[in-house]
Write a structure and sequence with these properties.
- It comes from Planococcus halotolerans.
- This protein is of the alpha+beta class.
- It has 3 domains: 151 residues, PAS domain (Beta-Lactamase, 2-Layer Sandwich), CATH 3.30.450; 85 residues, Signal transduction histidine kinase, dimerisation/phosphotransfer (DHp) domain (Helix Hairpins); 161 residues, Heat Shock Protein 90, CATH 3.30.565.10.
- It is built from 11 helices and 12 strands.
- Strand 4 and strand 5 form a beta hairpin.
- The two termini are 66 Å apart.
- The relative contact order is 0.06.
- Bound molecules: adenosine-5'-triphosphate and magnesium ion.
């Protein structure tokens, strides 16, 4: 399979590294060659200067002969002229190129330390230097030194070959490294891609054996966690469906049973009335259950429109308390509001009323007579906190983590007594979270329960400031 990511990464790296390597090699090569050529030039000039110094001491035919003889045995060629450029002596035969150099020389203007007169080693056959001969402060002649450029050319081509060889090795190593590197990066990615494909095909048992602690390892872990979560969700959904069908079946069984008994000819009028009232109760319970389930389904799909507005917490508390007061009075539970004045929350009052009703309903159901339920409202710079405390039976610690789950009831056997279906807190949680808030529950068995709702203040404060 053409592994596209690896190819892209590989190519990108390759291009970059090749550019960097080429620049480096080129610079190195040019500097190297220039230095070597400079060295050769300087040596040639130094040799010429030595001759001119010797001749300055004794500018005589014997010395001239001697110099010419010396250079005829060396790789260099010397031509000595007088001040006007007339040739006095030469060591080897004079090539046309040398003649050209002589012709192009301005004999009047040569610096004391000599100069390089031909340095185009890659165009010409010879490089050349010119050292003036000065006897007692007077300009007497010139020593021209020539060296064949063949040697320089050979040396440079040798260098170039070496550089090419090293460059090729470097490119080879680069290719191998990039290949390995890109495999190292993309292999786990490909495995993860396969894993997520499996996930979407419904296979949640994904095991990614990617044991590394970099970002790829983290990604692999995230995918594994995701697959576990999916698995859990699937199980939760199945459980939820099972509980729903159970929840629906129980009241339906009651209804059918009582309807059967009521329709028996032997049943008295009074019995019939009683059975029918039970049937009505159960039907009401069923209707409520289905309404709540529907509401939850809507909350799940965000179809729930939340119309937030600035609303006084105290007014909200009072309206809720007015609704539940009769039921609390009946059970002789006192209900108190403690709310700082002028707390304004940015909420959907109708939905929040429902949250408070659900929580208060629980408090009432699970508190004995003569106890107290308090609903509090406080705020600081960042949060508005609503808390509802009761002095009821409390919730066992082992059940605490689950009370917000759908259809979860602490005591299943007593459900008939309380008439709950275990959806109240789940709905409350969805609504609070849809407001960007948080709901928590603290409880101690035998002492009581406190439900705490926290809302961020951000929006409402900004708006109330703008509003004056
Ligand atoms: N204040 C409380 N004191 C004691 N137990 C509580 C309290 N609030 C909740 N619980 C326990 O948590 C469970 C879940 O509460 P939730 O409100 O979700 O369901 P419910 O009250 O049983 O049914 P519903 O609210 O749908 O009528 C309850 O069944 C109850 O056992
Ligand atoms: Mg409830």
């Amino acid at each position: 399979m053409l592994n596209k990511l690896a190819l892209k990464i590989g190519l990108l790296f390759f291009v970059f590294i090749i550019i960097i390597e080429s620049v480096l090699f080129l610079t190195l090569y040019v500097t190297f060659v220039n230095e070597r050529v400079d060295e050769v030039m300087t040596n040639l000039l130094a040799r010429g200067n030595t001759h001119s110094e010797v001749l300055a001491d004794s500018f005589e035919p014997a010395t001239l002969d001697h110099v010419a003889l010396m250079e005829s045995a060396s790789d260099f060629i010397v031509i000595i002229t007088d001040a006007a450029g007339n040739e006095l002596i030469h060591s080897d035969s004079i090539e046309p190129e040398m003649q050209e150099v002589l012709e192009h020389t301005d004999f009047g203007e040569v610096p004391q330390e000599g100069q390089i007169v031909e340095e185009r080693w890659n165009e010409k056959e010879f490089i050349a230097t010119d050292s003036p001969i000065t006897v007692a402060g007077e300009h007497q002649g010139h020593v021209f030194m020539f060296a064949e450029t063949n040697q320089i050319k050979q040396m440079v081509s040798h260098l170039r070959n070496q550089f090419l060889a090293v460059g090729l090795i470097a490119i080879g190593l680069t290719v191998v490294t990039i290949f390995l590197l890109s495999r190292l990066i993309t292999l786990p990615l490909i495995r993860m891609k396969k894993a997520t494909e499996q996930l979407s095909n419904g296979n949640n048992e994904v095991r990614l054996n990617i044991d590394r602690n970099d970002e790829l390892g983290e990604l692999a872990n995230a995918i594994t966690t995701l697959s576990n979560d999916l698995d859990r969700l699937k199980n939760a959904r199945n459980e939820f469906l099972a509980s729903i069908s159970h929840e629906l079946r129980t009241p339906l069984t009651y209804i059918k049973g009582y309807a059967d008994i009521a329709s028996r000819p032997a049943a008295s009028e009074e019995e019939k009335r009683e059975y029918i009232s039970i049937i009505r109760e159960e039907t009401a319970h069923l209707t409520e259950l289905i309404r709540q389930l529907f509401e939850l389904a809507q909350l799940d799909h965000n179809q729930f429109s939340i119309r937030k507005e600035e609303f006084s917490l105290e007014v909200l508390f009072q309206s809720v308390v007015a609704l539940v007061r009769p039921a609390f009075d009946e059970k002789q539970i006192s209900l108190t509001i403690r709310c700082e004045r002028e707390i304004v929350a940015f909420i959907d009052p109708e939905r929040f009323q429902q949250v408070l009703l659900n929580v208060l309903d629980n408090a009432r159901k699970h508190s004995p007579e003569g106890t107290q339920v308090t609903i509090r409202g406080t705020q600081d710079e960042k949060t508005i906190t609503i808390s509802i405390s009761d002095q009821g039976e409390g919730i066992p610690e082992k059940d605490l983590p689950f009370v917000f789950e759908r259809l979860y009831r602490v005591d299943k056997s007593r459900s008939r007594q309380y008439g709950g279906s275990g959806l109240g807190l789940a709905i409350a949680k969805e609504i609070v979270e849809a407001h960007g808030g948080r709901i928590t529950l603290h409880s101690e068995e035998g002492k009581g329960t406190t439900v705490r709702i926290e809302l961020k203040r951000g929006d409402s404060v900004a708006e109330s400031i703008v509003g004056g």
